[in-house]
């Protein structure tokens, strides 16, 4: 058990029969009345973010979450297949269990979350950035880099995103997994 004074970003709590992580919190002491804590909570089961206010000093049940690194092996009709690199134990996941499945490619590592007391699977977390190869995009015009113009590009996983005009086919680009947006071109050693 913890109280609202123990709140910190990333803390996992049990609230309304669900598991949540604290995304943001603010301790408020108004001039009149008791203190309270405003929070933004993200559900670990469905990814929804809710706002909630706790009275100061309220006891909250914390949840212990275990993170394990798994390697993505392959995808087939049954779902996504991952392997624990330490024990070589395989885990089969439904497509809904991965937040953005088009951002992962074979051999990539993911963090898999388990509830420590029950051992139940909670979810997957992608790394903040991934590097993917551009398989198709229209050719850009030479010298047209002064503006922030974008064009569509198809990546090796089938994902389509907007990239700057200077990106060509077979280039590797870095993508932010939180916003699913182009970040930069990856420099390759030739």
Describe this structure in words.
The structure is a single chain. This protein has 190 residues and is an all-beta fold. The chain has three domains: 2-62, SH3 type barrels; 65-125, Nucleic acid-binding proteins (OB fold (Dihydrolipoamide Acetyltransferase, E2P), Beta Barrel); 129-185, Nucleic acid-binding proteins (OB fold (Dihydrolipoamide Acetyltransferase, E2P), Beta Barrel). Helices cover 0% and strands 53% of the residues. The strands form three sheets. The chain has a six-stranded antiparallel sheet with strand order 1-6-2-3-4-5, with no helix packed on it. β8 and β9 (90-93) form a beta hairpin. It is flat.
Structural class: mainly beta
CATH class assignment of the largest domain: Mainly Beta
Low-confidence stretches: none
Elements, N to C (H/E):
EEEEEEEEEEEEEEEE
């Amino acid at each position: 058990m913890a109280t609202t004074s123990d709140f910190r970003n990333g803390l996992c709590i049990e609230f309304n029969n669900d598991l949540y992580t604290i995304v943001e919190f603010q301790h408020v002491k108004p001039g009149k009345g008791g203190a309270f804590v405003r929070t933004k909570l993200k559900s670990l089961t469905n990814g929804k973010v809710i706002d909630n206010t706790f009275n100061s000093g309220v006891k909250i049940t914390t949840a212990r979450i275990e993170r394990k690194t798994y390697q993505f092996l392959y995808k087939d009709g049954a779902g996504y297949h991952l392997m624990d690199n330490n024990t070589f134990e395989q885990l089969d996941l439904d497509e809904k269990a991965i937040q953005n499945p088009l951002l992962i490619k074979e051999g990539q590592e993911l963090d898999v979350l388990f509830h420590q007391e029950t051992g139940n699977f909670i979810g997957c977390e992608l790394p903040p950035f991934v590097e993917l190869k551009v398989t198709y995009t229209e050719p850009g015009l030479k010298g047209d880099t002064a503006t922030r113009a974008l064009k569509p590009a198809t990546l090796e996983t089938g994902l389509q995103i907007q990239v700057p005009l200077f990106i060509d086919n077979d280039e590797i680009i870095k993508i932010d997994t939180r916003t699913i947006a182009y970040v930069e071109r990856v420099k390759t050693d030739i």
